């Protein structure tokens, strides 16, 4: 333990006792209660983890993000956790807005999906965020997040290559091991030096006391992290002088030491069989009692031990074999049963899968059929049944910009249990990195753990969770009387009208306040439901109200840096190929439109004049009929794909609308919205029932000029049936009845890849796809083997394979391979 060892030679040794065994004659009340409350807390609030693999880290508008979500229970990492619904958001980092929201069904712990990137999305940094409804009860810090970069073929996506920039003042943090410095007791101080962008910086330096004497020196080991010994003295303040690689020097104060207390130092590096915990205190002789040490991993107790406060130096040993693979937490409680020191340790048992990928030959020709044999084994070489996902990409177009990027292994065992962003997490799992074990131990000293606080754990009772575990989709609401007061117990009938024309009928009662909830639904996106309510003897004079469906928000996003920064022309080949592909797709659509125009009716029937209009001819008009309503969650959904040049993206509750050509330097300029001739905000349009819309006019360019500068983005004019002078009031809705559109599961599309062994007319098109194949559901058999086939493209460049997956019992694995196409 470097310079700390001499001062810790004279220790009283105390072997940690197994959980729930006798405590050697000491008062067992607190240790027993500690274990019981920890188990009760984790039973009341079980943790879940979500991981998402994507086919690549960056895209252009018009492309599709292909995703595979893995859901694990938190303590044991077993697949198929209790939740059956996963939410996936695409978040724009700069604006913190959720641009796309997906609801995916989970089967056996897995979910597949895709996100089509509309042409209204701006280039820049995005976050892919994934979580379950149950995870919303806890901090967003433990939602899965993955930075993605979105590029545009019609914009400059990267800065020019410049000289070395001037090094700005770094962010330097100091972390006394265990949490505190105590006067007169030597301990260790870990540090982390990062740039303003959040990336680690090499640094060295020294520490001076108030008398300007040097008391310690230090140098970073990996990504700006390291540690140094320090024995603070009474009356002294300490200042660190940090020198960066460019020679600049910066000063930072160290945390002040306390006059008395405990210091805990953990040795997780030098001993192969045990984790050693060194505990010192300088409590006065009048202080008597026992301190308690507990080791636990993801809420599961590992060991508990007691020590005598009168013994000022104690070392406790915990057998390494008792720890699970991954992060564990060691906490010290003082003689008053208050947590005073805490430390994370990582125990690597190499209990992971090995995924072998073997192409049928080392070199292929363009458009040749590729066969890849997949074999999964455990650490002993035995075959394993596993569920995997594979992405095959063109290595010349899809660059590996971030070294040691997050994968399923590093996320499940490391990043998912830590707050903040871990830089290069894969570094700590590569055996080729000889210093990875001590470097990982320093990471444990600098990266905080806050999945729970002990004060909450030790409570005798817990506040019920706000969000339930979702075994299917859920909606809720309330039945109220005409005066808007609670109806009392109401009889309810629900008719769910599936898109395939099937009907599911449910019946039940509300509670005494008229509230109701329907759980466990398995419905597809935009499903219609009819709700009928009565009270007493068939009294239908009530209103049925649905609670607002979940609208994703973003409170805090921990993204200290965007790992993908491109220099100009670095992605020239990728952007060129993407533009060619999008141009071909656009030309195909235009040809289809021309063909349609050749068969359209030559004379258009003139519509009767509408007194609500102040303009003449609209650029486009959409007459709303019953067939359009089934897939529309709001009025603006009616426009999706139905009017050329009008793009609707984002979530159902907060869509973004753009009329082609309405762009300035700040991004999208949305159109002016009017309702029955009166200008309104977008939220008013979204709140209108789809069934109340008669037709929608779209005004572009000169047609919108009558509205002035406020219509620089065009005009969306919505006209309702109720607002029409010819509206038939006999069509008012039936009392006690509500028809609504429910947001359901979004089923994944099938990844399209051409098969060149079957000649087709479209094969004359050039093929330079960046993602050649995406196979999200590969299942190995009892022999641990599977096979994947696809076809190479026209590109004569290497193809990179990435496979991630896990066994049912939660052992993760990652496999990689590269082969040539010439």
TrEMBL record:
Q: Which UniProt keywords apply?
A: Cell outer membrane, Membrane, Receptor, Signal, Transmembrane, Transmembrane beta strand, Transport
SUPFAM superfamilies membership: Porins (SSF56935)
Q: List, alphabetically, the InterPro entries matched.
A: Plug_dom, Plug_dom_sf, TonB-dep_rcpt-like
Q: How does it sit in the membrane?
A: Multi-pass membrane protein
Which Pfam families does the entry link to? Plug
Q: Where in the cell is it found?
A: Cell outer membrane
Domain (TonB-dependent receptor plug) spans 619-715
Q: Methyltransferase among the record's keywords?
A: no
TM region positions: none
- Superkingdom assignment: Bacteria
Family membership: Belongs to the TonB-dependent receptor family.
| Protein name (Swiss-Prot/TrEMBL) | TonB-dependent receptor plug domain-containing protein
Q: Give the organism, scientific name.
A: Larkinella bovis
């Amino acid at each position: 333990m470097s310079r700390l060892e001499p001062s810790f030679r004279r220790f009283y040794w105390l072997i940690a006792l197994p959980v729930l065994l006798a405590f050697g004659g000491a008062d067992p009340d607190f240790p027993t209660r500690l274990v019981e409350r920890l188990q009760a807390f984790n039973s009341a609030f079980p943790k879940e983890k979500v991981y998402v693999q994507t086919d690549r880290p960056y895209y252009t508008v018009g492309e599709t993000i292909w995703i595979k979500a893995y859901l694990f229970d938190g303590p044991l990492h077993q697949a198929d956790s209790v939740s059956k619904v996963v939410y996936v958001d695409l978040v724009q980092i700069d604006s913190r807005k959720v641009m796309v929201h997906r609801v995916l069904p989970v089967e056996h712990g897995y979910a597949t999906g895709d996100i089509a990137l509309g042409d209204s999305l701006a280039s820049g940094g995005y976050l892919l965020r994934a979580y379950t409804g149950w995870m919303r009860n806890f901090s967003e810090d433990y939602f899965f997040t993955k930075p993605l970069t979105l590029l545009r073929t019609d914009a400059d996506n990267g800065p020019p290559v410049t000289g070395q920039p001037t090094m700005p003042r770094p962010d330097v943090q100091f972390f006394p091991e265990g949490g505190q410095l105590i006067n007169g007791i030597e301990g260790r101080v870990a540090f982390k030096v990062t740039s303003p962008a959040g990336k680690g910086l090499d640094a060295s330096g020294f520490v001076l006391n108030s008398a300007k004497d040097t008391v310690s020196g230090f140098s970073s080991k990996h990504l700006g992290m390291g540690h140094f010994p320090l024995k603070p003295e009474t009356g002294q303040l300490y200042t660190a002088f940090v020198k960066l690689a460019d020679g600049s020097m910066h000063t930072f104060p160290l945390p002040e030491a306390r006059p008395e207390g405990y210091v805990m130092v953990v040795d997780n590096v030098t001993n192969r069989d045990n984790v050693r915990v060194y505990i010192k205190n300088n409590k006065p002789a009048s202080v008597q009692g026992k301190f308690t040490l507990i080791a636990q991993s993801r809420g599961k107790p590992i060991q508990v031990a007691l020590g005598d406060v009168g013994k000022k130096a104690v070392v406790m040993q915990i057998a390494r074999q008792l720890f699970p693979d991954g992060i564990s937490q060691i906490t010290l409680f003082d003689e008053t049963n208050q947590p005073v020191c805490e430390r994370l340790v990582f125990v690597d048992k190499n209990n992971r899968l090995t995924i072998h990928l073997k192409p049928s030959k080392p070199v292929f020709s363009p458009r040749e059929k590729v066969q890849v044999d997949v074999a999964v084994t455990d650490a002993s070489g035995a075959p394993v049944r596993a569920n995997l996902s594979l992405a095959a990409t063109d290595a010349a177009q899809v660059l590996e910009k971030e070294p040691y990027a997050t994968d399923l292994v590093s996320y499940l065992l490391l990043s998912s249990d830590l707050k903040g962003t871990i830089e290069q997490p894969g570094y700590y799992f590569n055996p080729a990195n000889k210093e990875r074990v001590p470097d990982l131990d320093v990471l444990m000293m600098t990266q905080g753990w806050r999945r729970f606080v002990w004060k909450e754990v030790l409570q005798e009772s817990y506040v019920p969770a706000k969000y339930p575990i979702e075994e299917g989709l859920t909606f809720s609401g309330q039945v109220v009387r005409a005066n808007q007061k609670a109806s009392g117990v109401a009889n309810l009938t629900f008719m769910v009208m599936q898109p395939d024309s099937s009907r599911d009928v449910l019946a039940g009662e509300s509670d005494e306040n008229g509230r109701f909830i329907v759980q466990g639904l398995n419905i597809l996106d935009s499903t219609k439901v009819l709700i009928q309510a009565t009270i007493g003897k068939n009294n239908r004079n009530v209103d049925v109200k649905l609670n607002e469906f979940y609208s994703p928000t973003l409170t805090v996003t921990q993204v200290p840096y965007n790992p993908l920064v491109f220099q100009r022309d670095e992605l020239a080949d990728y952007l060129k190929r993407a533009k060619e592909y999008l141009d071909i797709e656009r030309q195909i659509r235009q040809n289809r439109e021309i063909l349609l125009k050749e068969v359209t009716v030559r004379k258009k029937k003139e519509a009767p004049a509408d007194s609500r209009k102040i303009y003449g001819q609209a650029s486009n008009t959409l007459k709303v009929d019953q067939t359009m309503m089934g897939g529309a969650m709001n009025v603006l959904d009616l426009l999706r794909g139905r009017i050329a040049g009008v793009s609707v993206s984002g979530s159902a509750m907060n869509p973004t609308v753009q009329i082609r050509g309405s762009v300035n330097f700040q991004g999208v300029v949305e159109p002016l919205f009017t309702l029955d001739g009166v200008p309104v905000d977008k939220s008013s349009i979204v709140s209108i029932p789809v069934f109340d819309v008669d037709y929608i006019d779209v005004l572009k360019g000169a047609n919108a000029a009558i509205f002035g500068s406020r219509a620089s983005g065009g005009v969306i004019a919505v006209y309702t049936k109720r607002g029409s002078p010819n509206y038939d009031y006999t069509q008012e809705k039936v009392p006690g009845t509500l028809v609504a559109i429910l947001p359901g599961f979004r089923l994944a599309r099938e990844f399209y890849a051409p098969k060149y062994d079957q000649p087709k007319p479209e094969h004359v098109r050039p093929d330079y796809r960046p993602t050649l194949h995406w196979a999200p559901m590969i299942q190995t058999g009892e022999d641990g083997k599977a096979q994947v086939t696809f076809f190479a493209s026209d590109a004569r460049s290497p193809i990179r394979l990435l496979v991630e997956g896990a066994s049912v019992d939660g052992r993760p694995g990652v496999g990689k391979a590269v082969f040539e196409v010439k």
